[in-house]
Each structure stands twice: as structure tokens, then as C-alpha cells.
Amino acid sequence: MMSRSEGKADLLAAVMPILEHLAAHPGATAASLASTFPLDSDLLRAVREKVVAGLEAGWLTPREAGGVKFGRVAKTSAESMGYTIDAVDMNGPGPGHTHPEGEVDLCFALTNGARFDGHPEGWVVYGAGSWHVPTVTDGRMAILYFLPNGAIRFEPRPG
């Protein structure tokens, strides 16, 4: 079994093509990401396997608050191409927050039919300045959040 640090390093290496793409295409949309990195691609199948293995081993989402399990894969650094990568395992609502620089979400359904903010598994992208209460319905999902410069503010809906 991999240690937490080995697992995180392995997952970070697996998502490196995604990070490189995001760094080169800061305005990437869910549609463009789905076209470049489809769920049935070898890359995303490998990422899903690593995410599920990390959940099962307990190192990916070691903390819990309000029924949401979470953990950090990488802090903002040159190695992470300027992104913080967080992971959650959820089956309901999480805390409301604002994305000062946007948020890119890679969602894996852990139960058939699970949806994230109304979207099936796959890519969900929120623009700079957007706010939401992240919510998984109809099951359980594992989500990797890619945050430019780690920018996020947990807060009630502004204004």
C-alpha cells in the first residue's frame, strides 16, 4: 500500500497533462476539457483508479467537515503549474464559496447517476468571481478541484 506522500505524488504525476493544459489554456471550458480529456481516455481512467485507490486507502480525503471528506493533493507551486488541487468525497451539499480566479472540477461518480451541481460525471468549470454551494445529488462523487493560485473564499453568497 502506498503512503500518503507517495499516493499524492503519484496522483500529481498522473494529472500533470491536465495541469499543463490548464496553464496553457486558462480559459478552458468544460466542453473543451471533455474534448481534450474524455472520461473514457486512458489518462482519465488512470486518474480515476488513483483517486478511488486513495479514497479506499484513506490518504486522499483524510479530513471531514459537515459530512464532506476532503484533502489536499497539491499546494500552489511551480510543480503544480500554479494550481492548488483539492479532493472531496461527497454525497450532499458542501460549504458555499467564491472562486476569485475560477475553478475546474473533474468529477467521478462513485455511484451510478450521481450528479455534481446538476452535471453528470466529467468536467465542470466555474468562471472567475462565481459563487456556489457545491452539491452532489443522486449518489456519491469524488471530485478533484483545480484552483488557480489556490484562490477560494468560503463565504455566504456575496451581495
What does this structure look like?
The model has no long low-confidence stretch (mean pLDDT 96). The chain is α+β, with helices and mostly antiparallel strands and 159 residues long. It is globular. The protein contains 4 helices and 11 strands.
Q: How is this fold's topology laid out?
A:
Layout (H helix, E strand, L loop, with lengths): L3 H11 L1 H9 L5 H7 L5 H16 L5 E3 L2 E7 L8 E8 L6 E3 L3 E7 L5 E2 L5 E5 L3 E3 L3 E2 L3 E8 L4 E2 L5
Antiparallel strand pairs: 1-2, 2-3, 3-10, 4-8, 4-11, 5-7, 5-10, 6-9
Helix pairs in contact: 1-4
What is the number of strand segments? 11
> How far do the termini sit from each other?
48 Å
| Main sheet summary | 6 strands, antiparallel
Percent in strands: 25-35%
Oligomer: single chain
Q: Give the overall pLDDT as a whole number.
A: 96
Low-confidence stretches: none
Shape: globular
Structural class: alpha+beta
- Main sheet strand line-up: 1-2-3-10-5-7
Count of separate DSSP helical elements = 4
Measured on Cα atoms, how large is the radius of gyration?
A: 14 Å
Q: Helix and strand succession?
A: HHHHEEEEEEEEEEE
| Fraction in helix | 25-40%
Short structural description:
The chain has helices spanning 4-14, 16-24, 30-36, 42-57, and strands at residues 63-65, 68-74, 83-90, 97-99, 103-109, 115-116, 122-126, 130-132, 136-137, 141-148, 153-154. With 159 residues, the protein is α+β, with helices and mostly antiparallel strands.
